[in-house]
Specification:
Blueprint (H helix, E strand, L loop, with lengths): L38 E4 L2 E4 H29 L6 H17 L2 H10 L6 H33 L10 H29 L27 E6 L2 E6 L3 E7 L2 E6 L4 E4 L3 H8 L4 E5 L2 E4 L3 E6 L5 E5 L4 E4 L13
Antiparallel strand pairs: 1-2, 3-4, 5-6, 5-9, 6-7, 8-9, 10-11, 11-12
Helix pairs in contact: 1-2, 1-5, 2-4, 3-4, 3-5, 4-5
């Protein structure tokens, strides 16, 4: 598709918040990359799942350090010698295993997000992951302690009684749940794939030709008391409208949905409907022309003649058009 360089005229039909669409705001700085399984943008920076892993591992390490001082202090308070290094060994062996197993609570959080549709299966899978987390953690922790003690010429023994196992498992299940919730919140906040609903890929490459023909083509909208089935190929644009989101369809229909634009972006990005402004998404398949402005912003002409303004901060969403 050739990129039109000549100016184009505005369509006569007014869209939602026409004046507001032209405003620039600091909120324009925030942008998810839409269909990206590995990263999301925030204030020009790139937040990846690896960064979230490192952040949670750092939190675990800090918690272990605090627990080390607490353990050494408690031993001394009970009349024993204050031994920081022994306390550090006992706590660090547990912390190392928790960090090594971070993928299990993360996967558990992803599975748990489907509990509404498959409650029994989801509960059993999460419970199995939690038990696997605890089992591997205890076995690995004991092994590391035995190796450390052996290196120092000593012997470490662990009380494998049922009471001790249940005590350790109780702590592990709490850790599993806490870490899983932390992953869920962090990945949802930054739009990482799986928890936030983003498919994998690159927004810059999400051209109409790149959208899979196997992608979902229909879904339901709740407009007031009515449930309406919509063909995604008929969607022109989606815009914020106060506490609602407005869907504009090719046949002239308009539907107001009580939700957020970000939530709709999450479910529409995989079918080629992407954010081109902080207040609007547009269907890439309905674009027939792209015109750049001297300010760095751009305008899109749709196949129904309507012109949609776009922000320069979201220009990568249409970068592949006309290439």
């Amino acid at each position: 598709m050739p990129v039109v360089k000549a100016p184009i005229e505005q369509a006569n039909h007014a869209s939602v918040h026409p004046g507001r669409d032209g405003w620039r705001s600091p909120r324009d700085r925030w942008r998810n990359l839409g269909p990206s399984g590995d990263r999301a943008r925030f204030n020009g920076g790139c937040v990846s799942s690896r960064v979230i892993y490192v952040g949670i591992a750092f939190i675990v390490a800090v918690a272990c350090l605090v627990e080390t001082f607490s353990l050494a202090h408690d031993i001394a308070r009970r009349g024993g010698p204050y031994n920081f290094w022994l306390s550090l060994l006992l706590v660090a062996t547990s912390g190392v295993m928790i960090i090594a197993l971070l993928s299990l609570p993360r996967h558990g959080a992803r599975i748990a997000s489907k509990i509404a549709s498959q409650p029994m299966k989801t509960t059993l899978l999460v419970l199995a992951l939690a038990l696997a987390f605890s089992t591997i953690h205890i076995a690995g922790m004991v092994l590391l302690r035995k190796l450390a003690y052996a290196a120092g010429g000593a012997t470490y023994s662990f009380n494998w009684s049922i009471a001790e196992i249940l005590y350790e498992m109780r702590k592990d299940l709490f850790s599993f749940m806490t870490i899983g919730i932390t992953f869920w919140l962090a990945e949802r906040a930054f739009g990482i794939a799986g928890l936030a609903g983003y498919p994998r890929g690159d927004a810059a490459a999400m051209t109409p030709e790149a959208v899979s023909p196997q992608a979902v083509t229909q879904f339901w909208l709740r407009d007031g008391r009515a449930n309406i089935r919509v063909d995604v190929r008929e969607i022109l644009w989606v815009a914020s409208a106060g506490n609602y989101v407005e869907y504009a369809l090719a046949g002239g229909q308009r539907h107001l949905i009580r939700t957020t634009l970000q939530a709709e972006e999450e479910r529409l990005s995989k079918v080629g409907i992407v954010r081109i402004h902080r207040t609007r998404l547009v269907n890439l398949k309905r674009i027939v022309a792209v015109v750049s402005r001297t300010t760095g912003d751009f305008e899109l002409r749709l196949d129904n003649g309507e012109v949609i303004p776009g922000s320069r901060r979201h220009k990568t969403a249409v970068a592949g058009l006309g290439a």
